[in-house]
Write a structure and sequence with these properties.
This protein is mainly α. Helix content is 82%, strand content 0%. Helix 5 packs antiparallel against helix 6, helix 13 runs antiparallel to helix 14 and helix 14 packs antiparallel against helix 15. Pfam families: T2SSF (PF00482).
Length: 341
């Protein structure tokens, strides 16, 4: 289920429960307010589960992957502590934040992606044009890429190659996820300059929001750490949950456990230590979250700028190579003509 729809549902359900509406009626009304037809059957199944005596968290579990794992975990905590409406309100804010960050990311990468597509199409058009010129003049087509791609067939091969690369990338991504190698892949990405900093910034922001929410809801520290690391959206961060939990359960401070992973920056850990000394870690992270959001946006801007620079540098190099190749051909023709004199 899309997070923006889940956020609306959480907020509506929270408001209704705060107003004293019974859970079954609240589920029915919240399902209608969600504004998505897919919520109709889901709502009916949730109501049926609750009517049989199950709690809302159990009903959500029965839906499988329809709802985020964090929602299921926190609803369970909310039911146990008696503050389900407050938990749902916090979740709505968290999911709204995730949607906003996702939109920011998509908006930022749209222009570089369009630039990349434009560059690929420009090369294809150039291959076709040079092939047509060769046919008109009766000369051999200029191989702009130096790999034997000329004329219409060359342009088709060029575009097909990129299409196959995209398909291979998608298949590879699916295999990484299904084989449980997301953590290893994300660890590799974190080592790449600019890219790694951007991904780490987003992960820190999401982790901070989630940890503050789960702790304020009364969730136990172990499940809170696991859920928050998973909510970071980064496989490398999520994979550290057993290590961090083991250290915390053995009596280590949370800041020391986070430091042992090597993924959390020094200034972040210092703020955690300040919160530990005053017993206000969730509040500290909640105050830090907006700053982390800004850092994530700045990192994303740097990444997109670097991506754009790489794209246009590649195009510029291609144009320079083309100029030299054309010049060398004409120079060869001139030399040949001079020899015939």
């Amino acid at each position: 289920m899309p997070l923006n729809i889940v956020a609306v549902w959480c907020r509506s359900l929270s408001t209704l429960l705060h107003s004293g509406v019974a859970l079954i009626r609240a589920l029915e009304l919240a399902g209608k307010r969600a504004g998505d037809q897919r919520f109709g059957p889901v709502t009916q199944r949730l109501i049926q589960e609750v009517r049989t005596g199950n709690g809302l968290s159990e009903a959500l579990i029965a839906e499988g992957s329809t709802f985020p794992a964090l929602l299921v975990d926190m609803v369970s905590v909310g039911e146990q502590t008696g503050n389900l409406p407050e938990v749902l309100t916090s979740l709505a804010g968290h999911f709204d934040h995730q949607v906003q960050m996702r939109r920011t990311f998509i908006a930022a990468i749209t222009w570089p992606v369009l630039q990349a597509v434009a560059a690929i199409l420009i090369v294809a058009i150039l291959i076709v044009v040079l092939g047509v010129v060769a046919q008109v003049t009766g000369s051999s087509a200029l191989d702009v890429l130096g790999v034997g791609l000329t004329g219409t067939t060359g342009a088709v091969a060029w575009l097909s190659g990129w299409a196959m690369l995209l398909v291979a990338g998608y298949i590879g991504w699916e295999m990484i996820n299904r084989m449980g190698q997301r953590g290893a892949f994300d660890r590799l990405l974190l080592t790449i300059p600019v890219v790694g900093h951007c991904l780490r910034s987003f992960a820190l922001s999401r982790f901070s929001w989630a940890f503050a929410i789960t702790q304020n809801s009364g969730m136990m520290i172990g499940p809170s750490i696991t859920a928050s690391l998973k909510a970071s959206g980064n496989g490398a961060f999520a994979a550290t949950a057993p290590e961090i939990n083991a250290m915390v359960m053995s009596g280590e401070e949370l800041s020391d456990a986070l430091q042992a992973t090597g993924y959390f920056p020094t200034d972040y850990l210092e703020m955690i230590r300040v919160g530990e000394s005053s017993g206000t870690v969730p509040e500290v992270l909640e105050r830090m979250a907006p700053q982390l959001d800004d850092d994530a946006r700045r990192s994303l801007a740097q990444l997109t700028m670097a991506f754009s620079s790489v794209i246009w540098a590649a195009v510029a190099i291609m144009i320079i190579v083309l100029i030299f190749r054309v010049f060398s051909i004409y120079l060869g023709l001139i030399n040949g003509a001079l020899k015939d004199i």
